[in-house]
């Protein structure tokens, strides 16, 4: 796509599922978009609420309760550290990751936080892990209390971290989505728009982005630069183990040395895709800078496939932009029709959706039609249906890191198989796969949804 500024006289007929590319691919820190990025934003939002209500000056003490999945795996995901960072006013996209690490432990000895120059006590024990009291509206919930010098509660507010770094307040009516020229709820809606307007999926998304006041070319360049920096950082780290106590070794640096200078053939091509995914997810597991795509736990899949695309003849930055725009549409459809939260639907909502996004994106960049884009995305999602979220030790390491490497290769295979079959129809549509993702997630036992109470999380210890 060489021109992305497209206008339309199409009136908005439905509330669109479209999520802005800059929101879907937000730049933050690891290891989890729902357990790290979301809680940091929630804490900052609580402080902003105190400030706007003129309650900050009388607040001397803050208590936080991490409910449900946040309480079950919050320590392994660095949630208490993220909360303390958010209370300080730090943002995921530009904070120093090293400064965030260890904030909760340091609160044992330094239990005060400076907020706008006002000292507020929040000790180590003021952040309570409460895995057995989930919020009725979502497995990932935080509850904040502001207390004055008399011990009276002056403000209470809850937040739900719903995946991908997105945070909502229970009971509040969300603002109406901004009008876009091409609203869509399903991928079939997108196919209809593409056919009637003679546009690609990427062009549809670009037009919506312009309408939202975004510059899709600039946003795509910034997002890809951050993804590429993450790959490069992960592949050049020193050998050693990832933090968290499992002693999981870094594999990306050694694999990079093995592949360095080797000629490209089928096996090395696959290994380079896996290398990029491993590099990103090892950075994520270490709590470093990463781009949600659409979550942190699945952050390595799309960057690895974009980098693979750039090794193909004729690849350029416009193709990268097409990939990110197309992936935005697919991610928006999955997010609206099912979920991208591992705590809601298991890992099928994270790795499954990321694989679908990457498969459809690569298909588009290599010249696939909108129908082929949907077919490739459906294959990427279909073969991850039922995938559980069972992180060992509550860490985004086992099986998460390897899953990204395998799913990135699956995405490439889904795209290439689709393109090699030309316009042959598929029995299962992307929308059918999204509905199935939703239904399987509803049927899945809660212990397989990011609680570390089932699957590998309990069986690895016994081995």
How would you portray this structure in words?
With 463 residues, this protein is α+β, with helices and mostly antiparallel strands. It contains 19 helices and 9 strands. The protein has a 5-stranded mixed β-sheet. Strand 6 (140-147) and strand 7 (153-163) form a beta hairpin. It is globular, with a radius of gyration of 22 Å. Residues 2-13 have low confidence and may be disordered.
Layout of strands and helices, then pairs:
Elements: H1 21-24, E1 27-29, H2 33-52, E2 61-68, H3 69-77, H4 79-87, H5 97-100, H6 103-106, E3 112-115, E4 118-121, E5 127-130, E6 140-147, E7 153-163, E8 166-168, H7 187-197, H8 201-211, H9 216-236, H10 252-259, H11 266-285, E9 289-291, H12 301-310, H13 317-337, H14 342-345, H15 351-365, H16 370-382, H17 400-420, H18 430-443, H19 456-462
Parallel strand pairs: 2-5
Antiparallel strand pairs: 1-9, 2-6, 3-4, 6-7, 7-8
Helix pairs in contact: 2-4, 8-13, 9-11, 9-13, 10-11, 11-12, 11-17, 12-13, 12-15, 12-17, 13-15, 15-16, 15-17, 16-17, 16-18
């Amino acid at each position: 796509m060489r021109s992305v500024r497209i206008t339309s006289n199409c009136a908005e007929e439905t509330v669109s599922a479209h999520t802005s590319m800059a929101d879907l691919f937000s730049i933050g820190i690891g290891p989890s978009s729902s357990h790290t990025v979301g809680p940091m934003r929630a804490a900052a939002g609580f402080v902003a609420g105190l400030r706007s209500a003129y309650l900050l000056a009388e607040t001397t003490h803050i208590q936080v309760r991490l409910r449900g999945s946040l309480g079950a795996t919050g320590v392994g995901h660095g949630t208490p550290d993220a909360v303390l960072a958010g209370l300080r006013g730090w943002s995921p996209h530009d904070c120093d990751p090293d400064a965030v690490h260890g904030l909760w432990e340091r609160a044992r000895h330094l239990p005060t936080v400076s907020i706008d120059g006002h000292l507020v006590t929040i000790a180590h024990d003021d952040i309570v892990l409460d895995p057995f009291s989930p919020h009725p509206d979502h497995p990932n919930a935080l509850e904040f209390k502001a207390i004055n010098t008399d011990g009276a509660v002056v403000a209470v507010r809850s937040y739900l971290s719903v995946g991908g770094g997105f945070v909502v307040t229970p009971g509040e009516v969300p603002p109406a989505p901004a009008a876009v020229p091409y609203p869509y709820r399903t991928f079939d809606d997108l196919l209809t728009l593409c056919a009637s307007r003679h546009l690609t999926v990427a062009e549809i998304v670009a037009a919506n982005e312009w309408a939202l006041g975004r510059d899709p070319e600039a946003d795509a360049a910034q997002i890809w630069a951050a993804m590429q920096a993450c790959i490069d950082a992960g592949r050049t780290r020193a050998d050693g183990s990832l933090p968290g106590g499992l002693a999981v070794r870094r594999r990306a640096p050694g694999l990079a040395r093995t592949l360095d200078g080797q000629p490209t053939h089928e096996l090395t091509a696959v290994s380079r895709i896996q290398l990029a995914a491993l590099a990103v997810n090892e950075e994520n597991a270490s709590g470093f800078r990463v781009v949600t795509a659409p979550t942190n736990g699945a952050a390595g899949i799309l960057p690895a496939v974009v980098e693979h695309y750039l090794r193909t003849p004729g690849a350029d930055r416009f193709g990268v932009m097409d990939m990110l725009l197309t992936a935005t549409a697919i991610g928006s459809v999955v997010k609206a029709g099912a979920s991208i939260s591992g705590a809601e639907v298991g890992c099928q909502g994270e790795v499954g959706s990321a694989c679908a996004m990457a498969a459809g994106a690569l298909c588009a960049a290599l010249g696939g039609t909108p129908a082929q884009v949907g077919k490739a995305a459906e294959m990427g999602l279909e073969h991850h249906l039922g995938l559980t979220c069972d992180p060992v030790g509550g860490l985004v390491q086992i099986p998460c890191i390897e899953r990204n490497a395998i799913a990135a290769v699956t995405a490439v295979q889904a795209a290439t198989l689709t393109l090699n079959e030309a316009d042959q129809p598929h029995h299962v549509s992307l929308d059918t796969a999204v509905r199935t993702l939703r239904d399987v997630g509803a049927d899945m036992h809660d212990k397989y949804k990011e609680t570390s109470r089932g699957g590998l999380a309990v069986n690895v210890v016994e081995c």
